[in-house]
Amino acid sequence: MKVILLNGSRREKGCTFTALSQVAAPLEEAQIHTEIIHVGKDAVNGNVDALVKEIREKMKTADGLVVGSPVYFAGPSGEIKAVLDRLFMTGEDVLRLKPAAAVASARRAGTTATLDVLNKYFTYAEMPVVSSRYWNVVHGYTPEDVLADKEGVQIMRILGRNMAWMLRCIEAGKKAGIQMPDKEEKIFTNFIG
Ligand SMILES: Cc1cc2nc3c(=O)[nH]c(=O)nc-3n(C[C@H](O)[C@H](O)[C@H](O)COP(=O)(O)O)c2cc1C
Fold this sequence. Notes:
The chain is of the alpha/beta class.
């Protein structure tokens, strides 16, 4: 089993990466492989399609998704938004029914607004949203700050453990013959008929 974790920060090894690493550790302990993909500047420098293609390919065989973003101006980073807009518009089939969770890292404020935006991608694609205790946020300006945020670190650890548990439950369900629900054809209406 495998979980993909997207780091939506421009900083490869910053606070978001540190938070995602805390989620990845209990998954690895549960023998679930993890890969942190750094979204970086490519997402908004003309390479978003290639990056999304790579993520979509990896999600074909992955079982879960965690999206991490720093808070920029009280919302998700433009980089992660650019990737998710393309990924969820073109990759629903490789995402559907796979457990997902969002993580936000801020120096001070804007985390819950950020989580609100990120979680909406998951429910758009029928992805079961994995929860932790409280909300999935850490606080810091440096990785050291994040590690000093003991409550945040605990929240990340619990999130990783809960995702591992949900993945094992789905695996056991499949082995017991429980079918995944079929995808319904989309009814697509708008406000003008
Ligand atoms: C462009 C920009 C905007 C930011 N806006 C906010 C903000 O609105 N609220 C906040 O608390 N921190 C804000 N920050 C700080 C980062 O969210 C915070 O330091 C975060 O933990 C950095 O994560 P990273 O190291 O993974 O990039 C901002 C940082 C940048 C670069």
